[in-house]
Amino acid sequence: MRPSVLKAQPADVLKDASMIKQKEMMANHYNRLTDAKENGHKVASTFVPGNLNELIMCFDLVNNLPEVNAIQSGLRKQSGAYIMEAERAGHSEDVCTYVKSDIGMMMKGNIGPNGKKLPDPDVLLLSYTGCFTFLKWFELLREQYKCPTIFLQTPYMADGKVTPNMVQYMVKQLKEDVIPTLEKVSGVKFDIDRLREYLAKSAKAEDDLVYILQSGKNKPSPIDAYFGGIYYIGPIFGAFRGTDDAIDYYRFLREEVDQRIAKGLGPVTPDGPMGDEKFRLVVEGPPNYTSFRQFWKMFYDEGAVVVASSYTKVGGTYDYGFRHDPDRPLETLAEYCLGVYTNRSLPMRIDMLCDYINEYEADGLLINSIKSCNSFSAGQLLIMREVEKRTGKPAAFIETDLVDPRYFSGANVKNRLESYFQMVEQKRSGRGAAA
Amino acid sequence: MKTFVGIDLGSTTTKAVLMDEDERILGRGITNSRSNYDTACRVAQQEAAVDARFTLFRREFGAEDGSAKEVEDFLAGLERAFRLEQFLEQLDDLEETCIRQVRGARFEKNADGVKTALGEVFNRLRGEAAAMFAPGATRKSDFFRDIAGSKYLGHAEDVARDAGLGYDLLLNVYDKSIIAVENRPPKGELSDKFKRALKRVTEQGIGLAGEMQNQVEMALDIELEETYLVGTGYGRVTLPFSKEHIRSEILCHGLGAHMMYPKTRTVLDIGGQDTKGIQVDEHGIVENFQMNDRCAAGCGRYLGYIADEMNMGLHELGPLAMKSEKPARINSTCTVFAGAELRDRLALGEAREDILAGLHRAIILRAISIISRSGGVTDQFTFTGGVAKNEAAVRELKKLVFENYGEVKINIDPESIYTGALGGAEFARRAAQGRMEGVDA
Predict the structure, then answer these.
(1) For chain B, which domains are there?
(2) B291: closest chain A residue by CA
(3) Neighbouring residues of A380: CB distance < 8 A, sequence distance ≥ 6
(4) B128 in contact with A, Cβ within 8 Å
(5) ipTM topping 0.85
């Protein structure tokens, strides 16, 4: 069953039509997922960073992403109860809240955002190992579902580069373990030409995605590359990479962005078009999902727009040139997994953030450090110092959580953000006064 | 004359600073925030205006440096008399409010008895008032609730017993009234109170009252025009200030510390519910900052809980901790568990002073960690906020700064609690001049 796509025309609809279209796509995907068993489809659970959607599709498997489920629960204000449920079952307060939201949701009947029960996975495909928690998460899921687990080890880019050995090592795992197991689970024979076809489609959508993300270089920026960026990355980081739907969506979005550029408009916020762009920021770290709109409002109310973010690269660093390559199908999958933002070393992350500040002409760096995310948050203070030193631009640090509402203190975050914006402003005008 | 007001609406206290056009402080005022920022703001501002009058008197007498002893004696007498007038006025308000509360089924049988008893309690309070504001008298607090409350409860118990009335009846009306009185800024013109105070001083024949009357009256006639106001602190968003009148407390503390000590590069502020580490440049412009997240562990409020738990005054904690020779090792600064931690330690037989010394060290350890996250300590280092008045906290801070950063000049101004308000007032002054560094929102 193919998802039906809302055939909206850019000319006829409001500026945030792409967001409506994106929501429709996500809803369709959830229906496909919850109806999978009924329709005779098997399900693979996998994670966003380094996900192998093209390969999964080669086996007619439906892609289920537990992190995205947790995000959905967060946005729908359900994650708090799920997390408490998981804590009652013995999961520590320090454990990643995506995991606890997922486990809690499972314990409460595994009801998806469409109100229907999510299917039990037929296979767990762990294709990215940069986050140690993922391993533990899947161990818990394996315990629950007793299904085959595939473990594709992705070497960490500790030395700042991908070596031929790393790629060969991953291709070997794909050939000897991942593909045979997926064949066995799905009963579908692997067809490399089918993979090539999907990869070619991925690359097309990726071109448009990069164009959209880099439109943040315009002044004013037509997009918010963090809050709006969450919508933009949804399809490509999830179950749509390699599909015609993704190609359509990104083309549509690109036209929408082009229109805004032509008119000199800023991004669309939940409260309507953004006012004057006063601050251009680069943001590091995931957003908070339980108070997503409140959080975003703290930015646009002050005229702050995020022109580039690292979070929109956790599912691939396409703006650094990577494209899925149909001519090297297995190698390209390996390189994709290796190159995602979370698999990059601290010096690489620093380089990237400095590049963004310079290329997007940002006023500074803001780090949203996630309390329960040990792998992403580690080293962020060092990153901040180094970026400040290299760019001379002010940086600030705030702390929230992914989907645990208890760790979002609105007054505190607002206080810090306002202080930061005023600090940027003061530095701008103070520089003039001091000279 | 033109004045510029900075108001720092903290979680515990609200502070106001009044500044003149020459960047000189005219007056400072403080009050408890009482969960009612609107009133707290007005009271603090009024207190700053009162203080400003004394500055103006000193200027009239050409004695701003406090060199003329007779002038200082006179002004001290005038201030005591003024505070007494203010206290009596609020006492009247409290009495009227209490009497209005004597109604309903509860008082059906003995309304008159309660009213008579209240009259007696307030007579006794009024009778004692002059002594409370006599030279050399010490008061545990300067806030009306604290001064009047403990005295009221004492007298009410005696009066109720003598009259054969239930003590709870008098408690009940007091509880209902004190909040209302506290939430009403003192009424009446300030200059009237000053005139009454002046009369009182003259009658007492203190110092040069007679000759100086004219000068005082001239100073009283100077109108203090509120030219521009900037609000900062936690309560700032709840006030009807427009956006250009609101500054973040980070910026205000940074600038305030710079004004007090221009060589300041690192500022630590420990307030009621947050701890801030701020780095500023040579112009007082904030370079970086860190603060605690929503958890108020190790902030001033923590000491407040400890004081309550030990049944001590907040300002008594530091001196007791200073007596310790063997500080307890305490790692938790969790405000919620402060009481439990304390009781555990006491149950284990540890001395109160040792526990307190350990608690102070734990607070400062946490502050040091926040500072290090903001970029460490760079000479000079200025410590501000209510906790800077606590000698045990200061002792630990000095130790830890030396251990971690070596020899650094540490500045602590006795008026450091006003740092944020001072920065706010300076922002207000600059804004009124059309200077926009950091003020143009």
Answers:
(1) 264-412 (3.30.420.40)
(2) A416
(3) A284, A285, A367, A369, A397
(4) no
(5) no
